């Protein structure tokens, strides 16, 4: 009986979190009430307060959940047989999909952007991104693939911020569906500055067609982000040019 109750409690928390995420992504923090979350989830307002104590509490949970997927996402790009810069590009496509399709991650990003209006501390979503990019750039330097003078840590900070800004502005101007299409333009400009020999390869073109959205929440016209699709690295690798001829591959 205790196990059954625990499972019900987890299911309730999840349904509340997903309902809140869709509303936060569409309407923002100020435009969403506990009653809205209750109605969307089919649960009572008392249930919201029981599991999350406050609207701030559920907002914090949404942000944490939205960015909790990054460690497992990054782990999929640990294959040492693939050149680090190629892994970096493939990872970026997964992240772009993540910033476009999943209601929880979209909500997490919008809430983080609105953090100054929320009376609770929200986690920094960029720490794990920056760490992962730093590691890939360091591996590229160790393998002789990175351009001279490119410092992994400093470059990673710049890349992550530029990439996030690019995704945010692209979505605002063209919609989330355009992210993966425009990303090839971004890499055509950015990748040659990272490569030891820019003539060794080209930035990949658009990978295989994006899968349909992973949730039933319609895309927000404001800042909206989402969850990665499985198998993206393989599709990206099959449909793109090699980004570099590393010495380690020769």
Task: Please describe what this structure looks like.
The model is unreliable at 202-250 (pLDDT under 50). Helix content is 61%, strand content 0%. The chain has helices at 2-27, 34-41, 45-52, 55-67, 70-75, 84-101, 103-113, 127-142, 152-174, 179-194, 232-239. The chain has 250 residues and is mostly helical. It contains 11 helices and no strands. The protein is elongated and about 60 Å long. The longest helix is centred in the N-terminal third of the chain and has 26 residues, at 2-27.
TL;DR of this structure?
The chain is mostly helical and 250 residues long. It has helices at residues 2-27, 34-41, 45-52, 55-67, 70-75, 84-101, 103-113, 127-142, 152-174, 179-194, 232-239.
